[in-house]
Amino acid sequence: MNWINNLVPPKISSFLTTRREPPDNFWHKCGGCGQMCDKKALEDNAFVFPCCGFHERMASDVRLKGLFDDGAYTMVPVKDVATDPLKFRDGQRYTDRLKAAKAKTALADAVVIGEGRLDGALVVAAAQDFRFMAGSLGMAAGEAVVTGMLHAVAKKTPFILFAASGGARMQEGILSLMQMPRTTIAVQRLREAKLPYIVVLTDPTTGGVTASYAMLGDVQIAEPGALICFAGPRVIQQTIREQLPEGFQRAEYLLSHGMIDMVVHRHKLRDTLGRLCRVLMSGPAVSKSADAGKGKKPAGYIKSMNGHAVDGKLVEKLARGSDVMEPEPVEGDARFDATAVEAREKAKRDAEAKAKGRALPRTS
Ligand SMILES: [Zn+2]
Fold this sequence. Notes:
Elements: H1 3-7, H2 10-16, E1 27-29, E2 36-38, H3 39-44, H4 60-67, E3 73-75, H5 94-105, E4 111-118, E5 121-128, H6 139-155, E6 159-165, H7 173-177, H8 179-192, E7 197-205, H9 207-210, E8 219-222, H10 233-240, H11 251-256, E9 262-263, H12 266-281, H13 283-290, E10 301-303, E11 309-311, H14 312-320, H15 338-359
Residues 30, 32-33, 35, 49, 51-52, 54 line the site of zinc ion.
């Protein structure tokens, strides 16, 4: 920097400097491969890096805008809660931390609730903002989640939650931990009202949030590469002193281990959520086409949350669309049996070889 910066106050120096260089936040570095991408291109691509498909974290307002039709939604007001009843202070006063986070994000707290239309149908959605004190769950965030869920119950709409959190807000001590049972009870209210609750786990979802409402969805979706865990990989590695497997606690790892239902690319997320809401809110229509004219329900039928018999496989197929990552289906106890897996693979290979043999002209 030149000598003038040291002499002139910053406000005046901004008049003096010519704006040839791009602003500080113009280039974004890809967290996957390290390539640079400019802000505009990244925004146009829903914050997915075009180089390798790395999913960047998103602000709550951008998230909600991307979900609702034409980006239009109304904010659901959340009641004020007590600020810092414990008068907590670590290196800094908790009230000061809160003030700084509010100034940085222009948010009241980490969770924002929006109400709007998705594919024409009314839905209520919550987005957790990682920029606000790491999206931590305190009294205000808990109140927002509960308010959103009860609002969905009152309006009889599905509830969609975008989770992103470092866990419970330590500065609020037990009061933040109490949000875990509180939000869990609100999820129960949704269930009693037979309304779908869909969770989208984004990077990162950890701690008390994973241990409560973020894992209680009727359908659990995750974004590619998202870290989803209770205790993080570093903590686990230091505790057990063992090398952790590749991709441990990432969305794909959790999918292949049966912890979540699907991993959906951000570009397909809106469509998938729209389809899911439609299917889950129209239980009778789905079941009608499948078991028309027969009293007996075929195998594979589940009783859906809205109280009608719905073909579980059909719901899954409809929700997935075609391009969504799909795990290899495994039946019953076979998933725990290594020999069964081998046998299945051998059968698959044999079938492929047979099909190939048939396709080739026979030579004798
Ligand atoms: Zn990249």
